[in-house]
């Protein structure tokens, strides 16, 4: 079952206090970004936040499930979804502690054939 646009919009609105929130269709569902970093996925109308030690400390004993069958477990956010302050705090902690993605070096046209 694909996620509904209405659910995605609700999740993004709940996270708005964390920073610049955006989403992108990925793997048939949606990736959620905060300040340009992927922090969560919406799959089957459920929110899965990337796991971090800091996020676990904030949530206590979160339920962990993979967003799709071959993925690693993520925090499944159910009860906290209606608490925008908690959700924003979780997203801020997550984006702060995730490793920053490295950009691929640019290849100049004259170097591409060498």
Which CATH architecture would you pick? 2-Layer Sandwich
Which strands sit side by side, in order, in the main sheet?
1-2-3-4-6-5
Indicate the proportion of strand residues: 25-35%
Q: How many β-strand stretches?
A: 6
Q: Indicate the CATH class.
A: Alpha Beta
Q: Mean pLDDT, as a whole number? A: 87
Number of helices: 4
CATH fold field value? Yope Regulator, Chain: A
Write down the Rg: 16 Å
Protein described:
With 114 residues, the protein is α+β, with helices and mostly antiparallel strands. It contains 4 helices and 6 strands, in the order αββββαββαα. Strands 1-2-3-4-6-5 form a 6-stranded antiparallel sheet.
Question: Key terms for this structure?
Answer:
114 residues; Yope Regulator, Chain: A; 6-stranded antiparallel β-sheet; alpha+beta
Helix and strand topology:
Layout: H1 5-14, E1 21-26, E2 29-34, E3 37-43, E4 46-49, H2 53-59, E5 64-65, E6 74-77, H3 84-97, H4 109-112
Helix pairs in contact: 2-3
Q: What's the quick description here?
A:
The chain has four helices and six strands, in the order H-E-E-E-E-H-E-E-H-H. By secondary structure, the protein is an alpha+beta fold. The radius of gyration is 16 Å and the shape is globular.
């Amino acid at each position: 079952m694909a996620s509904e646009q209405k659910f995605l919009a609700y999740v993004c609105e709940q996270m708005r206090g964390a920073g610049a929130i955006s989403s992108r269709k990925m793997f048939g569902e949606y990736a959620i970004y905060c300040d340009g970093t992927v922090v969560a996925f919406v799959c089957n109308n459920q929110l899965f936040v990337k796991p971090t030690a800091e996020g676990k400390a904030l949530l206590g004993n979160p339920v962990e499930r993979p967003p799709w069958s071959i993925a690693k477990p993520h925090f499944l956010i159910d009860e906290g979804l209606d608490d925008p302050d908690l959700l924003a705090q979780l997203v801020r902690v997550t984006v702060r502690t995730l490793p920053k993605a490295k950009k691929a070096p640019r290849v100049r046209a004259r170097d591409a054939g060498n």
